[in-house]
């Protein structure tokens, strides 16, 4: 139930509704609180455990940082190594790196020239490799194995057809010979 308290005195004041709560609403609220206490209590326990773990981790990290800080103080400072210049101070002269001896490049170049053979390069150069290729050369290359297989099948089929024709022609030749022999005999007899 909402009760209106009346017009606001100032424009900045808000109209605040007053709620009257009956016994039925209070009793239902108490029941719902009893049901919700268990999950909320469980969640609160989980939150406390999580906070305790975070505190333990924080203390562990702070302990490690303190140990690292003490190690830095105890460890000696690294000595500088002067590579690109000679220090003027006499104490730092022995910290400078010794000058490196130049490498004999001529022997490396001679070895690499001996390893690479010029004749091999000339043999590898072929006019077919230098000439520009047709636009469909890659398609032909990919189809070549399939065409080779088909070519073999085609040759077998042609051979079978030729054998079949030879058999038919031999049968025809035999029949022609048989039929021609009696004629020849009659022709010979007439002469």
TrEMBL record:
<dbReference type="GO" id="GO:0005684">
    <property type="term" value="C:U2-type spliceosomal complex"/>
</dbReference>
<dbReference type="GO" id="GO:0071014">
    <property type="term" value="C:post-mRNA release spliceosomal complex"/>
</dbReference>
<feature type="compositionally biased region" description="Basic and acidic residues">
    <location>
        <begin position="39"/>
        <end position="49"/>
    </location>
</feature>
<protein>
    <submittedName>
        <fullName>Coiled-coil domain-containing protein 12</fullName>
    </submittedName>
</protein>
<dbReference type="InterPro" id="IPR013169">
    <property type="entry name" value="mRNA_splic_Cwf18-like"/>
</dbReference>
<dbReference type="Pfam" id="PF08315">
    <property type="entry name" value="cwf18"/>
</dbReference>
<feature type="region of interest" description="Disordered">
    <location>
        <begin position="26"/>
        <end position="52"/>
    </location>
</feature>
């Amino acid at each position: 139930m909402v009760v209106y308290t009346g017009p606001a005195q100032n424009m900045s004041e808000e109209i605040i509704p007053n709620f009257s709560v009956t016994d039925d609403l209070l009793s239902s609220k108490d029941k719902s609180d009893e049901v919700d206490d268990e999950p909320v209590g469980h969640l609160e326990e989980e939150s406390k455990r999580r906070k305790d773990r975070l505190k333990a981790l924080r203390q562990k990290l702070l302990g490690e940082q303190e140990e690292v800080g003490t190690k830095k103080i105890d460890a000696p400072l690294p000595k500088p190594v002067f590579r690109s210049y000679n220090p003027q101070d006499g104490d730092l002269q022995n910290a400078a790196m010794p000058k490196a001896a130049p490498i004999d490049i001529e022997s490396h170049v001679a070895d690499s020239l001996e390893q690479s053979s010029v004749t091999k390069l000339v043999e590898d150069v072929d006019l077919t490799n230098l000439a520009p290729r047709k636009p469909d050369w890659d398609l032909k290359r990919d189809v070549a194995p399939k065409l080779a297989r088909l070519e073999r099948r085609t040759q077998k089929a042609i051979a079978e057809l030729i054998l079949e024709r030879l058999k038919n022609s031999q049968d025809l030749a035999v029949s022609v010979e048989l039929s021609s022999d009696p004629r020849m005999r009659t022709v010979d007899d007439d002469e």
